[in-house]
Amino acid sequence: MQRIGRYLYAAARDAIFNPPLASEGIEVPLSEEEQSDDGFQPKLEDIEEVKKIFLEELLLPLELVVNIVDFAEYWPHTTGIMWAGEEDSLYVRTGDRRENCLVVRTPPLGFEPLQAWKTRVVSNHEGTKTSTEVGPELEGTGRYPWSIDSAPRSVNRETDDNHLTKRIIEDWEKLSTTRGRPCRKVVFTIESHDQGWGGSAVDKGTFRGSFTWFDVGLERMSAFRADDDHIDDPGTDLDSEYPINCGSRMIIPRPRNPSSPEFPLLPERTCLQKNLTSTKFATKHEIIWRATDNIQPDSQEGDQLEEQGRGRDTLNGEFVRNLKMGDIITVWAKARFPGWCNVVESVKVDVYWAE
Known about the structure:
Blueprint: H1 2-17, H2 44-56, H3 62-71, E1 77-83, E2 90-93, E3 100-105, E4 117-124, E5 127-133, H4 163-174, E6 183-193, E7 212-225, E8 244-252, E9 255-257, E10 260-261, E11 273-274, E12 283-290, H5 300-307, H6 318-321, E13 327-335, E14 341-353
Parallel strand pairs: 1-4
Antiparallel strand pairs: 1-14, 2-14, 3-13, 4-5, 6-12, 6-14, 7-8, 7-11, 7-13, 9-10
Helix pairs in contact: 1-2, 2-3
């Protein structure tokens, strides 16, 4: 960690006072534990140490330090993954209760869990069941147990003024400097394909005429007492002897009723990613959304997004910029019309935020 901190210190100093020529490069030796397929991923303590070096040793103003860290994308992040378990792939088929399948949940924004959240999807003759393994979380350390199964815990009212939920968010804020709308980047990694046949011959191998795809959803954290039959009655004593649990309520897709979301028939302008049409082998898609994105839906770049099997409205930056502390990102796999099947091999979502 000290080597990483010293490197960033030197890199920032040189970038400001002695910028290298374009042909020059900097090679950073990393220990084995600091190397991974995704490169070095800093934790909260790493970022705080780097900021301390900039502020106390280089005596840079805080505003410049924040800009340097953002420019380097030196951010904490959390991961949500689809875990197939013993299943090789997940088959999302057209039909009642099966054609819209929740496959991933991320940990709430600004909260660093003890381990990645794993979402497991099991399909049988009774339908599809989704459960999210959130790992061990401990009270007394700013961590509360989570209770999330096949669907977010239903609520009968908006809970933005929820006393318990506000208390949990305040607990997280005490442990970090994260505030407001801190999300900077979301990376979706999907490996999937369709049934490998059907559709128009001229559409084969393109994203045209594809009726299997993925959409992004949003859940908002809600806290409740473990014994309660309802979520956080405003009159509930915050110091009750009953432990606090954390759940979520669905924001996107819009709930049609407390137990049933409203899903579109066809891919919309917010579609995350379509599968290639009539292609029986999996394709790996990496989709990056940034808070700084500013592509207008009806521009030439919007046309290019559609050619890549993505919705026109997905790179205007609004989804990322509007994420708040405690928000949970979800991914839904979709299939429409007889014979179509979304074969999902893996889905991973990495969420980066400013500390």
